[in-house]
Amino acid sequence: MTGDHSLRTFLSLTLATAAAALCGQASADAPPAGAGLQPSQLAIIINDAEPNSAEVGEYYRQVHGIPAANVAHVTIPNRPRKLSMDQFKQLKERIDAQLKPGIQAVLMVWSAPYAVECNSITSAFTLGYDAGQCAKTCDPGKPSPYFNSNVAQPYTELGLRLAMLLPVDFVDEAKAVAERGAVSGFSPPAASAYYLTTSDAARNSRAPLFPPPGMLAQRKLAIRHLKADSLDGAQDIMVYQTGMAKVAKLDTLRFLPGALADHLTSFGGDLQGTQQMSSQRWLEAGATASYGTVSEPCSYWQKFPQPSVLLRRYLSGSTALEAYWGSVAWPAQGLFIGDPLAAPYARFRR
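Structure tokens predicted for TIGR03790 family protein (350 residues):
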């Protein structure tokens, strides 16, 4: 698979599995998400009760050139991991009251809360709280209307404001994520997308959905398949997707600005948990955005980023927020974290 012909073939792939899973959803050969999310369309949500939130939020605003009028403030004391449905309803009402009609997405600048009962806070904000999923977390989820769609303005067209969370436990690390997202828009470097089939069979449900290996010359991107439990020493990572409870050797890797990385496991979105690796470890290792579930999802691939959809959207110029949100079919339990505006392939938008 080489050259521009291979790229066109890949970008127009129809993912039969995705279409079958979501009857009535846009087909996989739909065009990418329009012109992409703009800084003027993103709101920054500051938690005034978390000291690091204001500092990181203001830094993020300046780095990305976001209007000061797009900053909203809330107060969430005591850093709870999880909110009740009633607590979340009150929080969302306070946020919504401060948002202008043109806002298409929000960035929550805090480390906790990150869950609403069994839902992630990002999905509860975007799609509404899904009580049915919490009755049986291992049941199939509700389809996202944004999955694999060609929607350019999610709030204007669907009434959905896409949400992402930027953890702020360590100010310097949070600022570094913002810096990587900001510089990612320059000419993309030669890079690789790594897809690992591991020894953990239960966490390999996405392996049949990996994009085909080969070189995409126009994007200077090599797609690589490995049978291994971890990468060791790779220095050119733009995408890293795998399935393990804990991913080893992250300290040997170099992630390029704008890199996406995630692992299919039950509790990657439990940012303060210790049972499995938190998706926040990806950001600490140098990735710019990631994803993980906050409650037991079972191994449905639909509850995790679909690898071919994620890569196609990102290479077509979507932001990290648009690419990640557009790649998850049933996202109720999934937490989206990192820099929403990262877009290494922005010049390929159409």
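The CA atoms of residues 215 and 222 lie 4 Å apart.
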